[in-house]
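A reminder from the course coordinator: this example appears on the midterm review sheet, so study it carefully.

Given structure:
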């Protein structure tokens, strides 16, 4: 093999190496772009699931608060009714006592 042929062989090898590096770089860029797309999709899924969980938690909290409010209102109504009944009973006792004094 002559000097010119060796140089041509070296130049071809350099061209092939340059092409291989360029192809590897392009492939790496595609892989990175695909990874970014998958990461964005994963983030979107995670954010959607987080919003759904937050909405479910808020709904459960609201249901518990409504249940507690209903229980508190029922307790207050029961106390109010008991207070009215005690007051009516005392009033009836006082009226009976006054009537007994007036009659007696």
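Designed residues:
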């Amino acid at each position: 093999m002559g000097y010119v042929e060796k140089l041509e062989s070296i130049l071809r090898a350099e061209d092939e190496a340059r092409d291989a590096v360029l192809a590897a770089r392009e492939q790496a860029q595609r892989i990175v772009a695909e990874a970014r797309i998958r990461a964005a999709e994963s983030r979107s899924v995670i954010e959607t699931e987080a919003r759904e969980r937050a909405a479910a938690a808020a709904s459960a909290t609201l249901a518990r608060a409504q249940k507690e409010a209903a229980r508190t209102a029922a307790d207050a109504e029961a106390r109010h009714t008991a207070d009215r009944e005690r007051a009516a009973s005392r009033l009836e006792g006082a009226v009976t006592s006054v009537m007994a004094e007036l009659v007696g």
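The chain is about 95% helix and 0% strand. The chain has a mean pLDDT of 94.
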